[in-house]
Amino acid sequence: MFYEQSCIFSEFPLDPCDVLRGDADALAILKTKTSTRFLFFKDGEALMRDDDSGEPVYLNIDDAYVYLNGEEIFLGKNQQHAYFAITGDMTGEVEGDFLDLRSIARNAAKNGFSQIPSLLARGKMLLDWHNRHRFCSKCGAPSNIIKGGYVRYCNQCDTEHFPRVDPVVIMMVIYDNKCLLGRSPGFLPGMYSALAGFIEPGETIEEAVRREVYEETGIKVGDVEYIKSQPWPFPSSLMIGVIAQALDGQININNDELEDAKWFSKEEIKAVLRNGGDDEFRVPEKLAIARHLLEYYLRLRWNDD
Ligand SMILES: [Zn+2]
Q1: Ligand 1 centre and the CA of 162: distance in Å?
Q2: What residues form DSSP beta bridges with 166?
Q3: How far apart are the CA of 127 and the centre of ligand 1, in A?
Q4: In 3-state terms, what secondary structure has residue 80?
Q5: What separation in Å is there between the alpha carbon of 133 and the centre of ligand 1?
Q6: How far is the CA of 22 from the centre of ligand 1 (A)?
Q7: pLDDT digit string (tens) for 91-137?
Q8: Which of 13, 21, 60, 149 is most buried, by the most CB atoms less than 10 A from its CB?
Q9: How many CB atoms lie within 10 A of CB 236?
Q10: Cα of 148 to ligand 1 centre, how many Å?
Q11: Gap from CA of 74 to ligand 1 centroid (Å)
Q12: Is it the case that residue 305 has pLDDT exceeding 70?
């Protein structure tokens, strides 16, 4: 069914092999196997084949060994291969192009769906996190990568540190058969999207939705219904997509986050989905969960083609 269509960056394709992660000796052996594949990242970009396949370059141990330093991220296994994410200064001997994950996701969304962005997102998110968390946040000593990259451990104060995920609520706010979309400074001309914001410590998803919508537009929200979620590797978010029922329709923008917010009718949104939009009104592209929420709202709420 339509609403089950997954967002790009979801559907991780490997068995993450939790037990194997904790076995440093087994991981060391796995890295030497010829069937093992290494995904290479540099400055947040992934090394991709320079054709239209949408596939990364899979390095084997012969190509990858010069980059191994004990900080490889074990991503998991499928029937044929184990996968690691690695980074370093590539010397240029390997064919391929470095591509940012938005472009990779955009290409995958154009072609329907692919699990490759999910595989790459996990590698990028973990490598990013290690790069930004080399020292213990409790005592300041250098920490070490363990569990295949899913933990950093501080020998000095015996503390484990876990990779962070930042939850973000993103909401389609509905009132009187209209949908509330906003634009932030810096958006493309005419671009309106779902309101969104980080969940604060101690908040539920529902509370975060109600607070964000009220802060950004002065609108009070009642019911909140979870729809779907999307990992967003810039750098480590989880987008939590909901539909929220507004209790009133009076927009009052009272902070700097939004440049404008408006109620859009079903017809206006359907037209823009059909014709692609213009500098007056356009909506997010298919790689964004905001687009999924819009399409969900149009096609299932009113059951109308
Ligand atoms: Zn420490």
Answers
A1: 13
A2: 237
A3: 20
A4: coil
A5: 12
A6: 20
A7: 767 789 999 999 999 999 888 899 999 999 999 999 999 999 999 99
A8: 149
A9: 18
A10: 19
A11: 24
A12: no
At 126, is the secondary structure helix, strand, or coil? helix
Rounded to the nearest whole angstrom, what is the distance from the C-alpha of residue 154 to the centroid of ligand 1? 5
* Count of beta carbons in the 10 Å neighbourhood of residue 261: 21
In the structure, ligand 1 is a single-atom ion and the residues with CB under 5 Å from it are 136, 138-139, 141, 154, 156-157, 159
- The rounded Å distance from CA 156 to ligand 1 centre is 5
Q: Which residue has the tokens 């779907």?
A: 228
DSSP tag of 13: -
Radius of gyration of the chain (CA): 22
Length of the chain: 305
> Which domains are assigned to the chain?
2-130 (3.90.79), 133-163 (no CATH), 166-301 (3.90.79.10)
Residue with tokens 């300041």: 140
* Closest listed residue to residue 60, CA positions, set 36, 76, 96, 79: 36
The structure tokens listed for 24 are: 């440093």
pLDDT tens column, 56-79? 999 999 999 999 998 999 999 999
Ligand 1 center to 131 CA (angstroms)? 17
Separation of CA 141 and ligand 1 centre (Å): 5
Q: Is 180:217 a contact under the CB 8 Å cutoff? A: yes
- Burial class of 125 by CB neighbour count within 10 A (0 to 12, 13 to 18, 19+): buried
Give the pair of three-digit tokens for residue 267: 């017809």
221-232 and 237-246 beta bridge pairing = antiparallel
Answering whether pTM is above 0.90, one says yes
